[in-house]
Design brief:
By secondary structure, this protein is α/β, with parallel strands linked by helices. The protein contains 7 helices and 9 strands; from the N terminus they run αβαβαβαβαβαββαββ. Helix 6 packs across helix 7. The protein binds 5-O-phosphono-beta-D-ribofuranosylamine (GRF).
Length: 215
């Protein structure tokens, strides 16, 4: 029994701590939580879920899961002030990796500098195509035959940082933008946990814009 407790304590010590930032539905957050629970993201835990929108559904879902949550309403506040509160909260919870999961807000340069190469985002297009809002509709309206999603490091430009992982999704006859968005979202829920596990493993290097897996 004593050994089991010691082993558990050791595991907790070595867990990497994720900070989730979201503004809305939270399905990617839930996919990350499920992947931690079933071992697809080994030695990780969610340290805190933070929203910039009061009562965002993703935040509400986090509470009964026993996760720490925090809300810092951003509307009407200077970006740097708001970000300073979020940074302080992430530090208080000793976060190793920040995961933007439908966080509808640009990060200030100070935020990015506070977590260098330690902020990930998921975007519902094959970047660099269709950055910004409604990427799935943009891809559909453009007539793309292949769409998809991208997990990337966050830098100071919108949907721009080094790409960790992409998953392609075919645009099918009979699709509309909603059907395509749904099919992309299914792949997001697989891609984000996989990318987080890769980054947490540390088995990579960044060469220019290229994410390279270490042999
Ligand atoms: C996802 O499509 C994600 O790619 C984009 O915002 C959406 C968030 O959805 N950044 P959810 O809140 O994770 O369900």
């Amino acid at each position: 029994m004593r050994h089991a407790a010691q082993a558990e304590a050791r595991t907790e010590q070595t867990n990497k701590r994720l900070g989730i930032l979201l503004s809305g539905r939270g399905s990617n957050f839930l996919a990350i939580a499920a992947a931690i629970a079933d071992g697809r993201i080994p030695q990780a835990e969610i340290a805190v879920v933070i929203s910039n929108v009061a009562e965002a559904p993703g935040l509400v879902a986090a509470r009964p899961m026993g996760l720490a949550t925090a809300t810092f309403v951003s509307r009407g506040r200077p970006r740097a002030d708001h970000d300073a509160d979020v940074i302080a909260c992430l530090r208080q919870h000793q976060v190793d990796l920040v995961c933007l999961a439908g966080y509808m807000r640009l990060l200030s340069p100070g935020f990015i500098a506070a977590f260098p190469d330690r902020i990930l985002n998921i975007h519902p297009s094959l970047l660099p195509a269709f950055p910004g809002l409604d990427a799935q509709t943009q891809a559909f309206d453009y007539g793309c035959i292949v769409a998809g999603c991208t997990v990337h490091f966050v830098d100071e430009h919108l949907d721009h940082g080094v790409i960790v992982l992409q998953r392609a999704v075919p645009v099918l006859d009979g699709d509309d933008a909603d059907a395509l968005a749904h099919r992309i979202l299914e792949q997001e829920h697989l891609a984000y946990p996989e990318a987080i596990a890769r980054v947490l493993s540390g088995e990579y290097k960044i060469e220019g814009r290229r994410y390279v897996t270490r042999a």
